[in-house]
Amino acid sequence: xxxKFIPLxxxxxxxxxxxxxxxACKNDIDTINKITxxxxxxxxxLTGLETVYSDSGIIKLKIYAPKLVRYEKREIPCDIYEKGxxxxxxxxxxxxxxxxxxxxxxxSIKEELWEAKSNVxxxxxxxxxxxxxxxxxxxxxxxxxxSDKFVRITTEDEILYGEGFESNQEFTNWKIxxxxxxxxxxxx
Length: 188
Hints:
Blueprint: H1 5-24, H2 29-36, E1 44-55, E2 58-71, E3 78-81, E4 85-90, E5 96-102, E6 104-108, E7 113-124, E8 129-139, E9 144-154, E10 159-168, E11 174-180
Antiparallel strand pairs: 1-2, 2-3, 2-4, 3-6, 4-5, 5-7, 6-7, 7-8, 8-9, 9-10, 10-11
């Protein structure tokens, strides 16, 4: 084999490799920022959460959750309860007036909006009523609970079904948006 041919081949291959490497390594500031961005890292991660919300010394609600992860640097800061939560609501006498249970929840901090998903159940002890659905929203600013999913509401004397519902946050004044099935009507 020609000895002059081998070094020339090595030189040509080396030039091609180096030119490819150096042209691929350009410092695009947007790419670097995306790679080094820590926006989606949690601010904190809690296990075994138990917290109390009160107003003027009166307990409003207690939240229990196996795990809470807070993301403050996201575009929409939020708390994620990936293992679900259990909430106790208290009346003015500081007695439990209702509960909420779900397998997953998300709280959007700025909007003060809760989303509960997967086996959502609300119980109103005062009215002896229960609602079951797969997704529900609680807008704390508007003091409103709503869903556009299938719902089942159990009262003392009937079970109602439908698509979607709206309620005040105490779950004392509610309506099913698209009721289905038979409904009892009181004769007056």
